[in-house]
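Please review this one:
***
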Amino acid sequence: MKWLLTWSAHIDRLSEWLGRIIQWLVMAAVVISAGNAIVRKAFSMSSNSLLEIQWYLFAAVFMLGAGYVLHRNEHVRIDFVSARLSPRVNAVIDIAGLLLCVVPFCLLLIYLSWPLAVQAWVSGEMSQNAGGLVRWPIYALMPVGFGLLLLQVLSELVKRVAFLTGHRDAPTSEPAKPQGEDEGLAAPR
């Protein structure tokens, strides 16, 4: 179990690193979007490539960030139910959900999206818009993003099983904060 936990820690570090990169992608999307809007309003000019790069950055944030969100335990869950259950029961529910839903979903989407990315690469597919961008990078985000999510799912499975078998004190790396308990937003005590 120790080597699995070490492997899990490496995946978690990868997700954290990607999370920091994604912050910069968000900043780039905001700057490009604002610049494009200013140029469009001030000079009545626009660029399809700038518009498309915004879409690409937006897609990259969501596709590459899914594993990071899972690692940080910030994904959607039914808190009013899970808050009433013990950590052990929540870990069992997480394992079942990850194995029965998320793993097959990731595998299916990797399987379906990989040929699209390869075909776009081979054909040199371009946007139909004048001045548009090549399409393969956006298609490649799908199998890469779901692959990264699948890696993080495997890491989370290792942590949940380690918790249930007594090899870890907590089922997750980052416990979810109760609503309103974000940094700087905590209610005064």
